[in-house]
Every structure is written in structure tokens, then in C-alpha cells.
């Protein structure tokens, strides 16, 4: 009886894994329904944050290419153009059309002063439309900036 129970559990786990992989594959083939932004919404910035508290600009050390580990500099200013130092910056992103996130966990490696931060560990595993999202926590509070990138 225990062997039958174990086999049923294993069969259920295998079926769930197959369905999960299948649904991911279907999203990759058919997409998620995400609509690509207008061409004017793409680029490295400067880009205003959602509430307008910050303005951010990305400065990659090398051109954005798939399957290459990148280091980027990030410039953060307030709406008046003053440097934002000592901000906490969280990084996220992914491919909206495919429904997956970044393949790495980019992080701010160091603050270089004058509103300049160095981000390490950026990698895009394929070409296409990527969102690169930042949550910036400064004296005004938390605000978000989204960069649409064509890799």
C-alpha cells in the first residue's frame, strides 16, 4: 500500500512539473498579452520616476547585448537636478511578453557620489523587450522608475 501511495505522489509531482513547464513554454510561444510600449518609451533615460520625485539615467559600461554580464552606472537626481546620494535602490525586471524575470539578481555594488551608483550583475539572456525596474528610496520616500530596453 505504501508503494502505491508513493507512486501516486510521484506521478502527481511529475504531472504538476510537466504542466508548469508546459504553461511557461506556451507563454514563450504565444506571449502573455503584454503590449509593447511606444518607441518613445524606450531608452536609457533620463526617465522620471512614477511620482516625479526622481530622475534616473542608465549608463551601461558596454552596449546592451544578450548573454553578456554587464555593469551599469545609474545617475539619480531629484526633479530639480540635485544629486541623490545615499539612496537605497532595489532592482527588478524581466520580459513582459514572455512572463519571466531577469536571469540574474543585479545589485548596487557601490555609491560613487554625486548621485552615481554602480550596478553589477546585469544580464539579459535573450534579445527583445526588457523592463528594468528600480525602486529608489531617498529622503522623499520610495518611488519607482521603469526603463524599457530593446536588447
Describe this structure in words.
- With 151 residues, the protein is α+β, with helices and mostly antiparallel strands.
- It folds into 2 domains: 1-30; 39-150, Immunoglobulin-like (Sandwich).
- The protein is 19% helix and 41% strand.
- The protein has 1 helix and 9 strands; from the N terminus they run αβββββββββ.
- The strands form 2 sheets. A 5-stranded antiparallel β-sheet has the order 1-2-3-7-6, with no helix packed on it. The protein has a 4-stranded antiparallel β-sheet with strand order 5-4-8-9, with no helix packed on it.
- The protein starts with a helix and ends with a strand.
- The model has no long low-confidence stretch (mean pLDDT 88).
Which key terms come to mind for this protein?
151 residues; five-stranded antiparallel beta sheet; Immunoglobulin-like; alpha+beta; four-stranded antiparallel beta sheet; 2 domains; globular; 1 helix
Helices and strands, with pairings:
Blueprint lengths: L1 H29 L16 E2 L5 E7 L9 E9 L9 E8 L4 E2 L5 E7 L2 E7 L6 E10 L2 E10 L1
